[in-house]
Amino acid sequence: MSLEKLLHDCELELSWLIMVINSKKSFCLLIGQRHDVQCEQVTSSSGQIIPWKNEIRYLGIYITRNREFKCSLDIAKQSFYRACSQCYLW
């Protein structure tokens, strides 16, 4: 089963619930042995392209394309320390 067919099946199920996938906020990411392979574009049933990314942000954590599942917490740590340093200025 191709990724595009799986996306179309999910869109069909969501349409019965009167929901849609927001293609502006959706991305594809490869994780696994073939993470460095160039993949074809994935198109939604409405004709919008879902882009492939090397890194995506989910709930403030960056998930990166890699052989194994890998999260980057660097930006979250920077934001935390920036917020803490501003607390001491008061």
Describe the structure.
The N and C termini lie far apart (57 Å). The radius of gyration is 18 Å and the shape is flat. The chain has one domain. Helices cover 31% and strands 17% of the residues. The protein is built from 2 helices and 5 strands, in the order αβββββα. The strands form 2 sheets. Strands 3-4-5 form a 3-stranded antiparallel β-sheet.
How would you describe the shape?
A: flat
What summary fits the major beta sheet? 3 strands, antiparallel
The number of helical segments is 2
Query: Could you tell me the strand content as a percent range?
Result: 15-25%
Helix content: 25-40%
Q: How many strand segments?
A: 5
| Rounded radius of gyration (Å) | 18 Å
User: What is the terminal separation in angstroms?
Assistant: 57 Å
Mean pLDDT: 86
Uncertain spans, ≥5 residues at pLDDT below 50?
A: none
Tally of structural domains: 1
**What is the succession of H and E elements?**
HEEEEEH
Secondary structure layout plus pairing:
Elements: H1 3-16, E1 42-43, E2 49-50, E3 55-58, E4 61-64, E5 70-72, H2 74-87
Antiparallel strand pairs: 1-2, 3-4, 4-5
